[in-house]
Design a protein that fits this description.
By secondary structure, this protein is mostly helical. Helices cover about 70% and strands about 0% of the residues. It has 5 helices and no strands. The radius of gyration is 11 Å and the shape is globular.
Length: about 55
């Protein structure tokens, strides 16, 4: 997700097709996020960390 942000900024993180990008698919996609909790909550945490950095 950080690579998506680096490429296109905030718009890339809001892209509904973000889980279809090759990098995300190789990383396990939505299924991988579910292993850590609710995907929506995980995405919010990632976005917070990206914007703080």
């Amino acid at each position: 997700l950080a690579a998506q942000f680096a490429r296109g900024g905030t718009d890339e993180l809001e892209n509904p097709k973000i889980f279809q990008t090759p990098e995300v698919v190789r990383s396990g996609g939505l299924s991988a996020l579910k292993a850590f909790g609710k995907p929506v909550e995980i995405l919010h945490k990632v976005k917070e960390k990206v914007f703080v950095a």
